[in-house]
Structures are given as structure tokens and as C-alpha cells.
């Protein structure tokens, strides 16, 4: 489902296997457990890189699981996953270190939200799209999805294309629209670029709690929705 490995001062969270990495309650729980371990083991000058094996980064919530007991409980199970996923996003927004998503394949719906919750998003250009499928399958967006997109996608045109057009965007177009940071020629090159950036960032040896407070203050609407507090820290030397 997912693994966590630390190499030097970089944590690697990998969605494992060749499936779609659907965000089932079990996978959400595993990712949150991994992020809790990252938080516990964090020190000055650490970073997180998240990626996925196979064709997909993540294809969103596990809709097959939601329908497994019949259509009558579909919405109940979907709402359950929505409620479980919200604190995972809050975990990333409050994590005391830089975070980088190396999008190794398709990132759709909640899978795109998972990527967008990182500080930096890098994506392979040779395969994969980012895509919000809700309009196509007849679902509305959870409120925190909309707040996350307003916070992270600055261009109204880009947000319109994602939300109201259900556009499937490849990496180069997403870079041009300001939704991700960079595009790379393969999954391996994407991860390599993410590691290179992480190595640059950890050299700064930032205080993780200060970093997290600055991130939370940068996205006040998100922080308010998630109940994430932050405070200004002014060392005496300033």
C-alpha cells in the first residue's frame, strides 16, 4: 500500500504496487501513520518526497470499495473517505519540513489533491495527467478541496479549467498554468529532480516548526478550515 524510508535527511513516502493507488480508508490510514512517524523523527534540515510506483500516482478515492455494498451505501462510504482524507491534508499542511510530490503518473481527484497538498509538485511529462473527475462522474467537491485549489492554484482560468471543465492536463500544460513546478521526461527523472530539490532545501537546516508556521500563515483559509493554529516567532536577535 505505502512504504516509508529515510535516506540521510530525506523521507521517502512511496505508494507501492502497480495498481491505481486508490485512497481507501486503509491506505489513508497508512499514509497518516507514515506522516506521523515523519513528524516524530523530524529534525532540522529534513524533507519529505512522496511518489508512487507504476502508472498512477493516485487515482483518487476507492469508489469500488464505496460501491461494494450496493448503491444504497455508496454516498455514506464516499463521505467516510472524504472525512478521513481531510486530516491527512491537514497533516501535510502542518508538517514541519519542506514537502515535495514527485507525480509519477496519473493524479486524479483526491490523488491530485494529495499532490497539491505538498509545497512543491514535480511531474513526468511522458505519461500521466492531473485531472479532477468529479464533474464527469456527477459529484460535487468537498469544501476543503475547493479551499485547497483556491489556495494553491492562483490563476482563475486554471481553476476554471480544472473544476468546471474537468480538463485533463499533462505536465507541460500544468507548468504553464502555474499548477505544478516542473515537468520531467520520466518517472525516474521526476524523482531525481525531487531529490535534488530536497537536498538543496535541507542544506538550509531550517527550524521545522517555524517552517510549518510560515506555511500555515501562507494559506490562512486552509488553516482556518482545518483548525491549524500558527504563531509568529521573533528571535531576540531580530
TrEMBL record:
GO terms for biological process: fatty acid beta-oxidation. GO terms for cellular component: peroxisome. It is an enzyme of class 5 (isomerase). Keywords: Lipid metabolism. It catalyses: a (3Z)-enoyl-CoA = a 4-saturated (2E)-enoyl-CoA; a (3E)-enoyl-CoA = a 4-saturated (2E)-enoyl-CoA. InterPro entries: ClpP/crotonase-like_dom_sf (IPR029045), Enoyl-CoA_hydra/iso (IPR001753). It comes from the Eukaryota. The keyword Cell membrane does not apply. Pathway: Lipid metabolism; fatty acid beta-oxidation. GO terms for molecular function: delta(3)-delta(2)-enoyl-CoA isomerase activity. Its EC number is 5.3.3.8. PANTHER family: ENOYL-COA HYDRATASE-RELATED (PTHR11941), ENOYL-COA HYDRATASE_ISOMERASE FAMILY PROTEIN (PTHR11941:SF75). Belongs to the enoyl-CoA hydratase/isomerase family. This is Delta(3)-Delta(2)-enoyl-CoA isomerase. It comes from Protea cynaroides.
